[in-house]
Amino acid sequence: MATEPYFVIPAKPGSSTVTITFEGRKIVVPAGISVAAALLAGGVGVFRTSIVSAAPRAPFCMMGVCFECLVEIDGISGRQSCMVPVTDGMAIRRQEGSSALDVSEGAKDDV
Amino acid sequence: MTSETADLVVIGAGPAGLAAACEARELGMSVVVLDEQTAPGGQIYRNIESVTDDRQDVLGPDYVAGQELAAAFRRSGAEHCGGATVWNLTTDGVVDYIADGPKTVSGKYVLLASGAMERPFPIKGWTLPGVMGAGAAQVLLKGAGAVPAGPVTMVGSGPLLYLLAWQYMRAGVRIAVVVDTTPMTNYLRAVPKLPGALAGWPDLSKGLKLLGALRKGGVKVYRDAREVAIEGRDAAQAVTFRHRGGRIELPARLVLLHQGVVPNVQLSMSTGLDHSWDAAQHCWTPVTDEWGRMATSSLYVAGDSRGISGALASAVQGRLAALSIGQQLEKLSDLQTRAAPLRRQLKRYMAIRPFLDTLYCPREIHRVPTDDDVMVCRCEEVTAGQIRGYVKLGCLGPNQTKAFGRCGMGPCQGRFCGVTVTELIAKERKVDCAEVGHYRIRPPIKPILLRDLSAPKDEEP
């Protein structure tokens, strides 16, 4: 569900790229940038939905303060996408509402 | 869990932190610098070590000046730990952080240089996708070379907004409109501060050049705008505001808001040490002595996290703090002699602040929303009307708003609503902000994984 991107990153000839996915959709982005920058330039309009009214939200501060850019990265929810650099193959999902606490893995370990 | 010690631990690798580390190394101290970003520079000099030539040209000489400081830091022999999330700090200098697992470092002294954040701009529609801070957009420019894909609407007041507009013009970005919310009355109030600001004439003339370039570039500017709101259901579609007695509505898909910056005091607040309300800058600042030391603790503060002062003044404050720490550790015996030239520099760099603080003091209606529906706590979705309702029921301050309606209890831990909630309650109760107080900030000051905390000592997590 891509929208018209809010930002563009002009291509630099010869610069390296990585491929990430958002909700399964492949996005090729420059290496070394933050996940939030990559998604904003990759046509992602909604990063998460709010925990009370399920309203759409997107990054606001880009410097780790506002927590509006929270997404799930490689299975871990509540990650600040503005603070995490992209890596090749990173799988990102929208964070719907409050982050879910999945105890099944840990519970198995304890048994 | 690994643990180490140092004479000085610096938290934050912006101008204050980098300059302090350089000075401390020259005095022979062991220095560890922890920073949330992977590379040094802070927000102002973000990405300074790897920025391309064409982007340097867009960002301008004040940004490029940071290269010298970053290079000096790399040569200094200070240990740089990037990608470090500090989550706990004690008044005797123990710092807990996460960087590839849980770590602890104990400093004989710790310098807090956690910088500034954009002041919240609580207006209708400011939570919609398509609305973000101008500082945030500048982070995108510095960090990723990203620029708005279409025409951009810039709303607010203050040097950073005009600087970004100038940088966008150089990058060929189309600025649809600048909606300038600086109150006309501020210009009159700022005039008496102008003579004092002349000591900082290079800053003044730079500012005038920026504004001149915008005029010459033909950017449409609405001045003295007020009562700004963003319209849209699932994303920003229009910006509306009052201008010369009429209400104007303009289509806008990407809206950048800005009304100055405030100290990021989350770290210093978490120590429980005293802070005071700065009535001129409308924000909290840590209480320190002239060197930046908080009470008799092992903690010093320098730069914007001690009170907004700008990059150059921040670096000097960092050096002065390092000198004072050096004296405590008996690394020098001529503190006043070494400090004198730095103090003169600091005075010159600070000369423009009273003028800027007065001229760009944001309108009250843009700091303390009168519209009940405006979201104040973005995380837990608490509105201005709800907070006023809590006050009517007897709520005295920010800590009680948590019990009344979870205000300030989301993942940002009150960072983004703190100053608004304090001012809003103070206005409703008709008392000073100092009496209302701030949230009690407790560690962990950043959300961390239980997995990181529960890792056995001396083992890899």
Report a brief summary of the structure.
The complex is a heterodimer of chains A (111) and B (461). With 111 residues, chain A is α+β, with helices and mostly antiparallel strands. Chain A is built from two helices and eight strands.
Strand order in the largest sheet of chain A: 3-2-8-6-7
**How many individual β-strands of chain B?**
22
Largest sheet of chain A: 5 strands, mixed
- Based on CA atoms alone, the radius of gyration of chain A comes out at 15 Å
Biggest pleated-sheet summary of chain B:
7 strands, mixed
Return the structural class of chain A. Answer: alpha+beta
Fourth CATH level, the homologous superfamily of the largest domain in chain B: FAD/NAD(P)-binding domain
Question: Helix/strand-derived class of chain B?
Answer: alpha/beta
- Unreliable sequence segments of chain A: 107-111
Q: What would the CATH topology of the largest domain in chain B be?
A: FAD/NAD(P)-binding domain
Overall mean confidence score, pLDDT of chain B: 95
| Number of individual domains of chain B | 3
Inertia-based shape of chain B: globular
Distance between the termini of chain B: 8 Å
By DSSP (H or I, 4+ residues per run), the number of helices of chain A equals 2
Instruction: Report how far the terminal alpha carbons of chain A are from each other.
Output: 41 Å
Oligomer: heterodimer
List the main descriptive attributes of the protein structure presented here:
heterodimer; A: 111 residues; alpha+beta; two-stranded antiparallel ribbon; 8 strands; 13% helix; 28% strand; disordered C terminus; B: 461 residues; alpha/beta; FAD/NAD(P)-binding domain; 7-stranded mixed β-sheet; 5-stranded parallel β-sheet; 19 helices
